[in-house]
Amino acid sequence: MKELFFESIDSTNTYLKRNYEDLEDLTFVRADLQTAGKGRNARKWSSSKGKNLMFSLLVKDKKVMKAFGSLSVLSAYAVLKVLESYGIEGLSIKWPNDVYVKDKKICGILLEGVSKDEMECLIIGIGINVNEDHFEGDFLHEPVSMKQILHKNVDLNKFKEKIYDLLIETIDSIRSGTDLYEKVIAYDYLKGKRAYCLIDGLRKEVSIIGIDADYSLKISDEGEEKNIFSDEITFHL
Amino acid sequence: MKVYKVKVNGKVYEVEVEAVDEVKGGIEAPAQVKKEEVVVSQGSNDILAPIAGKVLSVKVNVGDTVKKGQTVAIIEAMKLENEIQSAFDGKVKQIVVSVGDDVRNKDVLIVLE
Q1: Are residues B22 and B74 in the same domain?
Q2: CA dihedral in degrees (B18, B22, B23, B24; nearest 10)?
Q3: Domains in chain B, number
């Protein structure tokens, strides 16, 4: 397991996209501060210096890359299990790849890839609110940190080691074909909820059936079951 | 005979439509439609979709010079934002896809000359 650390960088994901050819499979890149941190759909990811865990993991194994459809959800599952080991209750995975504590977001994940003729690498970017005291600004989803829940500082290094270890273990499961689906669906935040979503340009109220076996999201639209794959679907609860 | 260009799933087809005269009573024979498929270049400098997904963005315009390794488009699939980089230097001759298009694996995205 190799880690590159930066006190300050634009974005750990962007760093890996620029340098993946020269780096080994399963290289971690971590930063204390990101000046241009990214979320999905070009949103920003902001964090105070040194208080939170922000890193990206490079994947170059073809077998694991082929299973990219499951990687978002399974990465979120790995983070969730480590948070659970700290005694945090009310954890869930909000499809496709947020970790929630009750109705607040504690972790965001951005999965990016680089392809030429075929996929060359996958980058799993993870941001976890660890010791943030308070959050300023406007957020799409209300954030929360481990410190706010546990009412004490968390040792960032020890936490980081646990996260890294479980992520590697999760990727090994994917490589070996071990199915984690039955374990994952126990933490499905959206299951059974009603939500608005945009389908083919129309805003519709739908029922969420839950995360399906291929890690897409199954919904019921006026009695018709559909699977959502694309990130263009926006949910408003 | 009128010629229309029709784009279906990212591929452009040329369709010739012949107007049929009105016939009173009986069943009209369907108009004879001659469909000509415009074959988008399958040359060695085509930039292809490496996976099926949706086009999130196109980063170049026709006429742009592209360098090997330059990002030309982003395709989203199963929550993965996939940067498509050019495997060679060239000049953009044709952009086959638009933002929001669904593409299949190996569909031509951009043609370079």
Answers
A1: no
A2: 160
A3: 2
Same structural domain, A182 and A232: no
With CB atoms and an 8 Å threshold, state whether B83 touches A112.
Answer: yes
pLDDT of residue A143: 92
Band (B25; pLDDT cuts 50, 70, 90): very low
- Residues A202 and A175 grouped into a single domain: no
Per CB-CB distance under 8 Å, the chain A contacts of B84 are 115-116
| Distance (Å) of CA A111 to CA A93, A168, A195, B69 | 15, 16, 24, 20
C-alpha–C-alpha distance, residues A25 and A124, integer Å: 12
Do A91 and A206 belong together in one domain? no
What is the Cα–Cα distance from A51 to A128, expressed in whole angstroms?
Answer: 10
| Digit-coded pLDDT (tens) for A28-77 | 999 988 887 666 555 556 667 789 999 999 999 999 998 888 898 999 99
DSSP 8-state code for residue A156: H
Closest partner residue to B78 (CB to CB) among A68, A117, A118 is A68
Q: Are residues B80 and A232, on separate chains, in Cβ contact within 8 Å?
A: no
Of the partner residues B76, B83, B100, the one whose CB lies closest to the CB of residue A114: B83
Task: Tell me whether residues A69 and B48 touch, CB distance under 8 A.
Answer: no
Q: Residue A149, Cβ neighbours under 10 Å: how many?
A: 20
Q: Are residues B98 and B64 part of one domain?
A: yes
- A16 shares its domain with A126: yes
Q: With an 8 Å Cβ cutoff, are B76 and A232 in contact?
A: yes
Give chain A's residues under pLDDT 70: 37-47, 137-140, 200-201, 230-237
On whether both B10 and B33 belong to a single domain, the answer is: yes
Taking an 8 Å cut-off on Cβ atoms, the answer to whether A69 and B51 are in contact is no
The C-alpha of A171 sits at a distance from chain B's nearest C-alpha, in angstroms, of 16
On chain B, the residues whose CB falls within 8 A of the CB of A122 are 80
What is the reported pLDDT for B20? 60
Q: Mark whether B57 and B108 lie in a shared domain.
A: yes
| Cβ-nearest to B50 among A69, A111, A117 | A117
